[in-house]
Amino acid sequence: MPDHSTDDPTPEEFRTAMRGVHGHCSLLTVGSGARASGLVVTSGISLSTEPPLVLACVNRNASSHALFAEYGCFGWSTLGAAHRPVAERFAGKGGIKGAARYEGADWETAVTGAPLLVGAPAAFDCTVEEMIDRATHTILIGRVRAIRCTDGAGALIYAHGRFQELPDG
Description:
The protein is mostly beta strands. The protein has helices spanning 11-18, 65-71, 84-90, and strands at residues 23-24, 26-30, 37-41, 45-49, 52-59, 73-78, 107-108, 116-117, 122-134, 137-149, 155-159, 162-166. A hairpin with a 2-residue loop joins strand 4 and strand 5 (52-59).
């Protein structure tokens, strides 16, 4: 095979191309009280059904990154069509950080105490199974301990640099 190392895309070219990949938006929530935090990801996927495992990639520079190892549990809530304001808060729009990101939405807990978004199409209460560092991110693998579902919530996706609602039907 020919050596294409001199033709590698730049980080900006890669970011621009990835903006064209439509990703389903999810929240990863971690911590509690004043130390509650979280972020929006499009990297949340299922990894295994036996045992039930999920996977997401978290930038190691994210303010919530260290909390995953510290707390040992997290919530993964998929976002529905009506959750754009929640996504914007968790994406840090307007400089919102930490526990303030949780304002304006309803939350519940299941087994681990991690916050789950009420009304999420699917929400998974997870313990941290493994964290694997690769390049700028950590691959976060979670063992699902409880599930909450809401029918008819649609989906929120991220494409071309913006959130877009997809209602059911």
